[in-house]
Amino acid sequence: MSDRILRKAIDRIGSMPAGEIRRLVVRQLEKSDMLELLMENDSVGHCVLSDGLIVYANVLFGTLLPTNRVYLGRSEGHSLDEIITDPEVLDHLRSLNGQADDGEEDFYFQQGSEVRIIRVSNRTMQSAGRQLVDIAVRDVTQQERDKARLRRSESLASMTTMAAGIAHEIKNPLAAMQIHLQLLKKAFAKKGSLTLDDAQRYISVLDEEIEHLNKIAVDFLFAVRPMDVKLKKQRLEPILRSLEDFVRPELEDHGITLVVDIDPFLPRLMLDENFLRQALLNIVKNAMNAMTSGGRLTIRASGQGDFVRISITDTGCGIDQEHLGKIFEPYFTTKATGTGLGLTVVYKIIKQHDGDISVESTVGQGTVFTISLPVPSDERAVLEEGGDDGDDSDS
Protein backbone atom coordinates (compact mmCIF):
# COMPACT_ATOMS: atom_id res chain seq x y z
CA MET A 1 0.00 0.00 0.00
CA SER A 2 1.38 3.42 -0.94
CA ASP A 3 1.67 6.31 1.51
CA ARG A 4 -0.70 8.28 -0.72
CA ILE A 5 -3.49 5.77 -0.08
CA LEU A 6 -2.73 5.81 3.64
CA ARG A 7 -2.96 9.60 3.77
CA LYS A 8 -6.35 9.45 2.06
CA ALA A 9 -7.46 6.88 4.63
CA ILE A 10 -6.41 9.21 7.46
CA ASP A 11 -8.72 11.90 6.07
CA ARG A 12 -11.73 9.58 6.55
CA ILE A 13 -10.51 7.63 9.56
CA GLY A 14 -13.47 8.78 11.65
CA SER A 15 -15.88 6.89 9.39
CA MET A 16 -13.77 3.76 8.93
CA PRO A 17 -14.53 0.48 10.73
CA ALA A 18 -12.02 -0.51 13.40
CA GLY A 19 -11.12 -3.68 11.50
CA GLU A 20 -10.18 -1.73 8.37
CA ILE A 21 -8.07 0.69 10.42
CA ARG A 22 -6.29 -2.25 12.01
CA ARG A 23 -5.56 -3.77 8.59
CA LEU A 24 -4.13 -0.46 7.35
CA VAL A 25 -1.87 -0.14 10.38
CA VAL A 26 -0.69 -3.76 10.13
CA ARG A 27 0.14 -3.37 6.44
CA GLN A 28 2.00 -0.16 7.10
CA LEU A 29 3.97 -1.81 9.90
CA GLU A 30 4.82 -4.72 7.60
CA LYS A 31 6.02 -2.28 4.97
CA SER A 32 8.04 -0.37 7.56
CA ASP A 33 9.60 -3.60 8.86
CA MET A 34 10.49 -4.66 5.33
CA LEU A 35 12.14 -1.33 4.52
CA GLU A 36 14.05 -1.38 7.80
CA LEU A 37 15.22 -4.93 7.10
CA LEU A 38 16.44 -3.85 3.68
CA MET A 39 18.30 -0.87 5.11
CA GLU A 40 19.85 -2.85 7.95
CA ASN A 41 21.12 -5.51 5.55
CA ASP A 42 22.39 -3.04 2.97
CA SER A 43 26.13 -2.76 2.36
CA VAL A 44 25.83 1.03 2.70
CA GLY A 45 25.51 2.92 5.96
CA HIS A 46 22.79 5.59 5.91
CA CYS A 47 22.03 8.58 8.09
CA VAL A 48 19.26 11.07 7.34
CA LEU A 49 19.47 14.56 8.82
CA SER A 50 16.79 17.20 9.27
CA ASP A 51 17.68 20.56 10.84
CA GLY A 52 20.85 19.09 12.26
CA LEU A 53 19.17 16.15 13.97
CA ILE A 54 19.24 12.50 12.96
CA VAL A 55 15.83 11.23 11.83
CA TYR A 56 17.13 7.84 10.71
CA ALA A 57 20.41 5.91 10.86
CA ASN A 58 21.08 2.22 10.27
CA VAL A 59 23.53 0.23 12.35
CA LEU A 60 26.15 0.12 9.60
CA PHE A 61 26.44 3.92 9.72
CA GLY A 62 27.50 3.64 13.35
CA THR A 63 29.98 0.84 12.71
CA LEU A 64 31.74 2.20 9.62
CA LEU A 65 32.41 5.59 11.22
CA PRO A 66 33.92 6.35 14.63
CA THR A 67 30.78 6.81 16.79
CA ASN A 68 29.66 6.71 20.39
CA ARG A 69 28.51 3.10 20.65
CA VAL A 70 26.07 4.03 23.41
CA TYR A 71 23.78 5.32 20.66
CA LEU A 72 24.33 2.40 18.26
CA GLY A 73 20.97 1.52 16.74
CA ARG A 74 19.13 4.29 18.58
CA SER A 75 20.56 7.57 17.35
CA GLU A 76 17.28 9.09 16.09
CA GLY A 77 16.59 12.49 17.58
CA HIS A 78 20.22 13.09 18.54
CA SER A 79 22.68 15.52 16.98
CA LEU A 80 25.83 14.59 15.12
CA ASP A 81 27.90 16.06 17.96
CA GLU A 82 26.55 13.38 20.28
CA ILE A 83 27.13 10.52 17.82
CA ILE A 84 30.34 11.17 15.85
CA THR A 85 33.60 10.95 17.81
CA ASP A 86 36.11 11.78 15.04
CA PRO A 87 36.61 15.59 14.77
CA GLU A 88 37.45 15.55 11.05
CA VAL A 89 34.40 13.48 10.15
CA LEU A 90 32.21 15.59 12.42
CA ASP A 91 33.35 18.86 10.79
CA HIS A 92 32.59 17.41 7.37
CA LEU A 93 29.12 16.14 8.33
CA ARG A 94 28.22 19.42 10.03
CA SER A 95 28.99 21.24 6.78
CA LEU A 96 26.45 19.10 4.91
CA ASN A 97 23.37 20.25 6.82
CA GLY A 98 21.38 22.43 4.45
CA GLN A 99 23.95 22.02 1.66
CA ALA A 100 22.41 22.01 -1.81
CA ASP A 101 25.21 20.31 -3.71
CA ASP A 102 25.78 16.57 -3.69
CA GLY A 103 29.32 15.45 -2.96
CA GLU A 104 31.63 12.88 -1.44
CA GLU A 105 34.74 12.71 0.74
CA ASP A 106 37.14 9.90 1.64
CA PHE A 107 38.40 9.31 5.18
CA TYR A 108 41.24 6.99 6.24
CA PHE A 109 41.20 5.03 9.50
CA GLN A 110 43.85 2.77 10.97
CA GLN A 111 42.37 -0.58 12.00
CA GLY A 112 45.02 -2.88 13.36
CA SER A 113 47.69 -3.34 10.71
CA GLU A 114 45.67 -1.98 7.79
CA VAL A 115 44.13 1.29 6.70
CA ARG A 116 40.43 1.35 5.87
CA ILE A 117 39.06 3.86 3.37
CA ILE A 118 35.55 5.07 4.17
CA ARG A 119 33.73 7.15 1.53
CA VAL A 120 31.08 9.56 2.78
CA SER A 121 28.69 10.90 0.16
CA ASN A 122 25.64 13.10 0.53
CA ARG A 123 22.51 14.12 -1.34
CA THR A 124 19.59 16.39 -0.50
CA MET A 125 15.96 15.31 -0.58
CA GLN A 126 12.59 16.95 -0.01
CA SER A 127 9.95 15.19 2.07
CA ALA A 128 6.70 16.59 3.48
CA GLY A 129 7.91 20.14 2.92
CA ARG A 130 11.23 19.75 4.71
CA GLN A 131 14.76 19.34 3.40
CA LEU A 132 16.60 16.17 4.32
CA VAL A 133 20.25 15.28 3.89
CA ASP A 134 20.97 11.61 3.19
CA ILE A 135 24.51 10.65 4.19
CA ALA A 136 25.73 7.39 2.66
CA VAL A 137 28.82 5.66 4.07
CA ARG A 138 30.70 2.93 2.19
CA ASP A 139 33.84 0.94 2.89
CA VAL A 140 35.76 1.33 -0.40
CA THR A 141 39.05 -0.12 0.82
CA GLN A 142 39.01 -3.12 -1.50
CA GLN A 143 37.69 -1.05 -4.39
CA GLU A 144 40.55 1.42 -4.04
CA ARG A 145 43.07 -1.40 -3.67
CA ASP A 146 41.81 -2.91 -6.91
CA LYS A 147 42.11 0.47 -8.63
CA ALA A 148 45.66 0.90 -7.31
CA ARG A 149 46.56 -2.60 -8.50
CA LEU A 150 45.15 -1.81 -11.94
CA ARG A 151 47.05 1.48 -12.08
CA ARG A 152 50.29 -0.32 -11.19
CA SER A 153 49.64 -2.88 -13.93
CA GLU A 154 48.89 -0.14 -16.44
CA SER A 155 51.98 1.77 -15.30
CA LEU A 156 54.20 -1.28 -15.77
CA ALA A 157 52.70 -1.89 -19.21
CA SER A 158 53.24 1.76 -20.10
CA MET A 159 56.83 1.65 -18.86
CA THR A 160 57.45 -1.46 -20.95
CA THR A 161 56.02 0.27 -24.01
CA MET A 162 58.09 3.38 -23.31
CA ALA A 163 61.27 1.37 -22.81
CA ALA A 164 60.71 -0.39 -26.13
CA GLY A 165 59.92 2.95 -27.77
CA ILE A 166 63.05 4.62 -26.42
CA ALA A 167 65.20 1.70 -27.57
CA HIS A 168 63.65 1.94 -31.02
CA GLU A 169 63.99 5.73 -31.22
CA ILE A 170 67.63 5.92 -30.15
CA LYS A 171 68.73 2.94 -32.22
CA ASN A 172 68.81 4.78 -35.56
CA PRO A 173 70.67 7.92 -34.34
CA LEU A 174 73.25 5.78 -32.54
CA ALA A 175 73.72 3.61 -35.63
CA ALA A 176 74.21 6.70 -37.80
CA MET A 177 76.73 8.12 -35.31
CA GLN A 178 78.63 4.84 -35.20
CA ILE A 179 78.82 4.62 -38.99
CA HIS A 180 80.11 8.18 -39.38
CA LEU A 181 82.63 7.75 -36.57
CA GLN A 182 83.97 4.69 -38.41
CA LEU A 183 84.11 6.66 -41.65
CA LEU A 184 85.93 9.46 -39.82
CA LYS A 185 88.48 6.97 -38.44
CA LYS A 186 89.03 5.49 -41.91
CA ALA A 187 89.55 8.98 -43.35
CA PHE A 188 92.15 9.69 -40.65
CA ALA A 189 93.87 6.37 -41.29
CA LYS A 190 93.94 7.02 -45.02
CA LYS A 191 95.14 10.64 -44.98
CA GLY A 192 96.98 10.78 -41.68
CA SER A 193 95.38 14.14 -40.93
CA LEU A 194 92.17 15.95 -41.86
CA THR A 195 91.25 19.55 -42.33
CA LEU A 196 88.03 20.88 -40.83
CA ASP A 197 86.50 20.88 -44.30
CA ASP A 198 87.42 17.21 -44.75
CA ALA A 199 85.84 16.25 -41.40
CA GLN A 200 82.86 18.60 -41.62
CA ARG A 201 80.48 16.19 -43.37
CA TYR A 202 81.03 13.62 -40.64
CA ILE A 203 80.81 16.19 -37.83
CA SER A 204 77.57 17.61 -39.27
CA VAL A 205 75.89 14.21 -39.17
CA LEU A 206 77.12 13.67 -35.60
CA ASP A 207 75.71 17.08 -34.59
CA GLU A 208 72.34 16.29 -36.17
CA GLU A 209 72.07 12.90 -34.50
CA ILE A 210 73.09 14.31 -31.11
CA GLU A 211 70.35 16.92 -31.48
CA HIS A 212 67.93 14.15 -32.44
CA LEU A 213 68.85 12.19 -29.30
CA ASN A 214 68.45 15.32 -27.18
CA LYS A 215 64.96 15.89 -28.58
CA ILE A 216 64.00 12.28 -27.78
CA ALA A 217 65.19 12.77 -24.19
CA VAL A 218 63.36 16.10 -23.80
CA ASP A 219 60.11 14.71 -25.21
CA PHE A 220 60.39 11.64 -23.01
CA LEU A 221 60.90 13.70 -19.84
CA PHE A 222 57.96 15.93 -20.71
CA ALA A 223 55.75 12.89 -21.25
CA VAL A 224 56.62 11.05 -18.03
CA ARG A 225 57.35 13.75 -15.46
CA PRO A 226 54.54 14.91 -13.14
CA MET A 227 52.71 17.91 -14.55
CA ASP A 228 52.45 20.94 -12.31
CA VAL A 229 48.94 21.72 -13.52
CA LYS A 230 47.40 24.74 -11.78
CA LEU A 231 43.69 24.88 -12.53
CA LYS A 232 41.79 28.10 -12.12
CA LYS A 233 38.34 29.16 -13.24
CA GLN A 234 38.57 31.11 -16.47
CA ARG A 235 37.10 31.61 -19.91
CA LEU A 236 37.97 29.20 -22.70
CA GLU A 237 37.51 31.67 -25.57
CA PRO A 238 40.66 33.80 -24.93
CA ILE A 239 42.77 30.61 -24.95
CA LEU A 240 41.28 29.51 -28.27
CA ARG A 241 41.65 32.99 -29.79
CA SER A 242 45.30 33.10 -28.73
CA LEU A 243 45.85 29.70 -30.33
CA GLU A 244 44.08 30.90 -33.49
CA ASP A 245 46.37 33.95 -33.80
CA PHE A 246 49.44 31.77 -33.27
CA VAL A 247 48.72 28.99 -35.80
CA ARG A 248 46.85 30.84 -38.54
CA PRO A 249 49.95 32.18 -40.41
CA GLU A 250 51.64 28.75 -40.52
CA LEU A 251 48.42 27.02 -41.56
CA GLU A 252 47.87 29.53 -44.36
CA ASP A 253 51.45 28.97 -45.55
CA HIS A 254 50.51 25.29 -45.93
CA GLY A 255 47.34 26.13 -47.88
CA ILE A 256 45.05 25.29 -44.94
CA THR A 257 41.94 27.35 -44.19
CA LEU A 258 41.31 27.81 -40.47
CA VAL A 259 37.75 28.19 -39.14
CA VAL A 260 37.14 28.90 -35.44
CA ASP A 261 33.57 28.72 -34.10
CA ILE A 262 33.01 29.41 -30.39
CA ASP A 263 29.64 29.58 -28.63
CA PRO A 264 29.23 33.11 -27.23
CA PHE A 265 27.99 32.12 -23.75
CA LEU A 266 30.25 29.29 -22.64
CA PRO A 267 30.58 28.81 -18.87
CA ARG A 268 33.92 29.28 -17.18
CA LEU A 269 36.00 26.14 -16.71
CA MET A 270 38.78 24.98 -14.40
CA LEU A 271 41.77 25.31 -16.74
CA ASP A 272 45.52 25.60 -16.87
CA GLU A 273 45.93 27.94 -19.81
CA ASN A 274 49.49 26.96 -20.76
CA PHE A 275 48.99 23.20 -20.61
CA LEU A 276 45.62 23.26 -22.41
CA ARG A 277 47.07 25.47 -25.14
CA GLN A 278 49.95 22.99 -25.54
CA ALA A 279 47.51 20.09 -25.89
CA LEU A 280 45.46 21.91 -28.52
CA LEU A 281 48.61 23.00 -30.37
CA ASN A 282 49.82 19.38 -30.55
CA ILE A 283 46.52 18.32 -32.14
CA VAL A 284 46.62 21.23 -34.59
CA LYS A 285 50.21 20.31 -35.59
CA ASN A 286 49.11 16.72 -36.21
CA ALA A 287 46.23 17.96 -38.35
CA MET A 288 48.56 20.20 -40.35
CA ASN A 289 50.90 17.27 -41.03
CA ALA A 290 47.91 15.21 -42.20
CA MET A 291 46.94 17.85 -44.79
CA THR A 292 50.02 17.84 -47.02
CA SER A 293 48.06 19.26 -49.95
CA GLY A 294 46.15 21.88 -47.98
CA GLY A 295 42.63 21.62 -46.67
CA ARG A 296 40.36 22.93 -43.96
CA LEU A 297 40.85 22.90 -40.18
CA THR A 298 37.84 23.66 -37.99
CA ILE A 299 37.98 24.35 -34.25
CA ARG A 300 34.58 24.43 -32.51
CA ALA A 301 33.72 24.94 -28.85
CA SER A 302 30.18 24.44 -27.57
CA GLY A 303 28.34 23.74 -24.35
CA GLN A 304 26.65 20.34 -24.10
CA GLY A 305 24.99 19.66 -20.75
CA ASP A 306 27.57 19.36 -17.97
CA PHE A 307 30.48 19.59 -20.42
CA VAL A 308 32.09 21.94 -22.90
CA ARG A 309 33.19 20.14 -26.06
CA ILE A 310 36.14 21.26 -28.16
CA SER A 311 36.31 19.59 -31.56
CA ILE A 312 39.25 19.88 -33.94
CA THR A 313 38.34 18.64 -37.41
CA ASP A 314 40.71 18.30 -40.36
CA THR A 315 40.26 17.20 -43.96
CA GLY A 316 43.51 15.27 -44.07
CA CYS A 317 44.51 11.73 -44.92
CA GLY A 318 42.72 10.16 -41.94
CA ILE A 319 43.81 7.33 -39.65
CA ASP A 320 43.36 3.60 -40.25
CA GLN A 321 40.78 2.02 -37.95
CA GLU A 322 43.37 -0.46 -36.69
CA HIS A 323 45.49 2.45 -35.43
CA LEU A 324 42.75 4.53 -33.75
CA GLY A 325 42.90 2.60 -30.49
CA LYS A 326 46.66 3.09 -30.20
CA ILE A 327 47.24 6.73 -31.05
CA PHE A 328 47.40 7.89 -27.41
CA GLU A 329 49.92 5.17 -26.49
CA PRO A 330 53.52 6.27 -25.90
CA TYR A 331 55.79 6.01 -28.94
CA PHE A 332 53.04 4.94 -31.30
CA THR A 333 53.35 6.89 -34.53
CA THR A 334 52.61 6.37 -38.21
CA LYS A 335 54.98 9.18 -39.25
CA ALA A 336 58.48 8.55 -40.54
CA THR A 337 59.82 11.13 -38.08
CA GLY A 338 58.70 12.10 -34.61
CA THR A 339 58.78 10.44 -31.22
CA GLY A 340 55.13 9.40 -30.98
CA LEU A 341 54.73 11.25 -27.67
CA GLY A 342 52.69 14.25 -28.84
CA LEU A 343 49.25 12.67 -28.39
CA THR A 344 50.37 10.90 -25.21
CA VAL A 345 51.07 14.34 -23.75
CA VAL A 346 47.68 15.58 -25.01
CA TYR A 347 45.90 12.68 -23.31
CA LYS A 348 47.79 13.30 -20.06
CA ILE A 349 46.95 17.03 -20.05
CA ILE A 350 43.24 16.46 -20.69
CA LYS A 351 43.08 13.87 -17.89
CA GLN A 352 44.73 16.40 -15.56
CA HIS A 353 41.75 18.65 -16.37
CA ASP A 354 39.33 15.82 -15.37
CA GLY A 355 38.31 15.73 -19.00
CA ASP A 356 38.17 13.15 -21.75
CA ILE A 357 39.33 12.96 -25.35
CA SER A 358 38.11 10.82 -28.23
CA VAL A 359 38.94 10.51 -31.92
CA GLU A 360 37.01 9.57 -35.05
CA SER A 361 38.59 9.23 -38.45
CA THR A 362 37.93 8.11 -42.01
CA VAL A 363 40.83 7.36 -44.31
CA GLY A 364 40.91 9.85 -47.16
CA GLN A 365 38.37 12.19 -45.52
CA GLY A 366 39.83 13.43 -42.27
CA THR A 367 39.92 13.20 -38.48
CA VAL A 368 37.97 14.70 -35.58
CA PHE A 369 39.44 15.02 -32.08
CA THR A 370 36.83 15.83 -29.43
CA ILE A 371 37.82 17.09 -25.98
CA SER A 372 35.20 17.11 -23.20
CA LEU A 373 35.85 19.37 -20.21
CA PRO A 374 33.53 19.34 -17.15
CA VAL A 375 31.60 22.45 -16.16
CA PRO A 376 32.07 23.34 -12.46
CA SER A 377 28.93 22.84 -10.35
CA ASP A 378 28.51 26.54 -9.56
CA GLU A 379 28.73 27.40 -13.26
CA ARG A 380 26.08 24.75 -14.01
CA ALA A 381 23.82 26.43 -11.47
CA VAL A 382 24.25 29.77 -13.26
CA LEU A 383 23.36 28.14 -16.59
CA GLU A 384 20.30 26.44 -15.14
CA GLU A 385 19.09 29.79 -13.82
CA GLY A 386 19.36 31.09 -17.39
CA GLY A 387 21.86 33.80 -16.80
CA ASP A 388 25.50 34.75 -16.37
CA ASP A 389 27.03 36.51 -13.44
CA GLY A 390 28.94 38.69 -15.86
CA ASP A 391 32.18 38.21 -13.95
CA ASP A 392 35.10 37.43 -16.22
CA SER A 393 37.60 37.21 -13.40
CA ASP A 394 39.70 34.13 -12.75
CA SER A 395 38.39 33.64 -9.26
Low-confidence stretches: 389-395
Main beta sheet strand tally, sense and closure? 5 strands, antiparallel
* Name of the CATH class of the largest domain: Alpha Beta
Report the CATH architecture of the largest domain: 2-Layer Sandwich
Distance between the termini: 52 Å
Q: Helix tally?
A: 12
**Number of individual domains:** 4
In terms of topology, how is this protein built?
Blueprint: H1 3-11, H2 18-40, E1 45-50, E2 53-57, H3 59-64, H4 80-83, H5 87-96, E3 103-111, E4 114-127, E5 130-139, H6 141-191, H7 196-224, E6 232-234, H8 237-253, E7 256-262, E8 269-271, H9 273-290, E9 295-304, E10 307-314, H10 321-324, H11 342-352, E11 356-362, E12 366-374, H12 377-384
Helix pairs in contact: 6-7, 8-9, 9-11
3D structure, described in words:
- This protein is α+β, with helices and mostly antiparallel strands.
- It folds into 4 domains: 1-40; 42-139, Beta-Lactamase (2-Layer Sandwich), CATH 3.30.450.20; 144-224, Orthogonal Bundle (Helix Hairpins), CATH 1.10.287.130; 232-384, Histidine kinase-like ATPase, C-terminal domain (Heat Shock Protein 90, 2-Layer Sandwich), CATH 3.30.565.
- The chain is 48% helix and 23% strand.
- The strands form 3 sheets. It has a 5-stranded antiparallel beta sheet with strand order 2-1-5-4-3, with helices on both faces. A 5-stranded mixed beta sheet has the order 7-9-10-12-11, covered by helices on one side.
- Helix 9 (273-290) packs antiparallel against helix 11 (342-352).
- The radius of gyration is 32 Å and the shape is elongated.
